Every structure is written in C-alpha cells, then in structure tokens.
What does this fold into?
Amino acid sequence: MGRVTQRRKVHKFVLDGSPQALEFPVRHREDVLAVEEPLEIRLGELSYSVTMRTPGNDFDLVAGFLVSEGVIWSPEQLVSLRFCAGEDENGVQTFNVVEAQLRPDVARPDTGRNVYTSSSCGICGTDSIEAVHKSSHFSPAADPLTVPVGVLASLPDALREAQAVFDVTGGVHAAGLFRIAEDGSPELLCLREDVGRHNAVDKVVGWAFREGLLPLRGTVLQVSGRASFELVQKASLAGIPVLAAVSAPSSLAVELAEASGMTLAGFSRRTSLNVYAGRGRISVPAPVI
It folds into this structure.
C-alpha cells in the first residue's frame, strides 16, 4: 500500500494467563500503522492550509477541501492540480505540497490566514450555520430521495467490507458514497480512508467534484465515526441529502442538518439506527398482517 501504511517493530505483552504467556510474556513482532503526514495546500503560489492526512488521493482531498470551504463548486473553476517540489532529508520527493490553480474569475479566499487542520478537526474557521449557508451553492432540501430503513442500516457493513487499509492497520476512518437506485438498492460509488474523518469525506467529495457529479443528489454518505458539525457541513455543500454515521451526532450537527434540509442518522448498526433530522426520507416496510 505504499506510503499509506508503515511497518514498525513493537513489543507485544501477552497477559492471558496461558503457560506460554507466563514463560514468554513479551513477544517481538511487526505492526502495520496508518501513515500520517502533513499536506500543504497552495492556491497558486500562496499557502492556504496545512492538514494532517494519510497520503493518497491527495488531488481529491484538495478539491474536496476547496468545495467544503465554498471556494469552488464546478469543475471548470479548478484549472489544475499539481505536486510541488519538496524533498526530505534524504532527497526523496515527499509529495506533501499540492498547488491548485483556480480560474481567474474565481474569488480567492483569505490566503493569509494559514489554516492548520489536525487529523481530528476539519472545521477550518467556519463556525456558524449562517456562514455555511452563505457558502452553499447546492441545497439538499428539495432532494426527493427515499431510503428504505433496512438499506440504510446495512450500509455500515458494506462500508466495513470495503475498508482495505483498516483491515491491516485498524487506524483509519472511512467515508463511503452510495447511490440509492429507484428500487432502493445501494451502489457504492466511492470509498476513501484516512486518519482524519474529515479528510476521508473531502476525498469522496473531491472525487465526485472531479468527476463532474456535484450536486450529489440521490446519494447517502456513510461514515465510520461520529457525525460532527464539519461532516454535515461538507455533505451539505456537496448537495448530499443523507448522512449516516455509526456513532453519535453533535447537537450543532443536528441543527445544521435540519436547517439544510438533510437527513441525519446516527448509531447506524445492522439492526437499528437513530434518525435525528429528515425522517421523511426514511421509508419503512408495511407491517405484515
């Protein structure tokens, strides 16, 4: 998996009470870790943001980040993406700087703020629902999508089955974009994994942006962690009508979902889920009499 993972020697302590554990309580072995490295995003020659991410699909990450910031929303607005020269102490190209060239008529954001984004937070300065609406060019409110409740509850398992990096590291988040057909069946369009849950979502949105698929009507975004405000924000700005998470949402995430006309589900498991906003999009089978 290249720079996505890294092998490290570890000391494993075994405390299960077995005779082997008592005789050899410490075992030397290799473990596989998810790589985390900084990525600097430049608009032209000016630095705009630095985010900690798992290398891979970096152009998708940058495009999705700019969509999430409300900077771009149409592929024609992004002229090019390229890796800038950058070397480590051994003279090896790091691929940790991406330069985005925007169309001349695209309004440049404040490039002097030097935003730093950790792998756990992707809000990047947008701290109110009003600010999100000012940046939004797509509204999921009018999306007529209906999702069978059983299909929605099945998506975490479908996401997990496709998580190749998590299988070997156990240390990355995932975001999966599913198209819901007229008969209610789901199709996985794109899955991305990253140490940052917001990066995984940006990589999915960026993929869709570069494929010319925005707004993402008729889709569900399934994420592996909690539903935070920034994830609802990113889904809303991409026109995604349904966001489902395996863990809990925050109060502000629910408020933004309601204000944006989105459906927000949490604690989505195989046999149950909670719907916090947009209940009208969830269809339930008629009871058997």
Summary: DSSP finds eight helices and 15 strands in the chain. The radius of gyration is 21 Å.
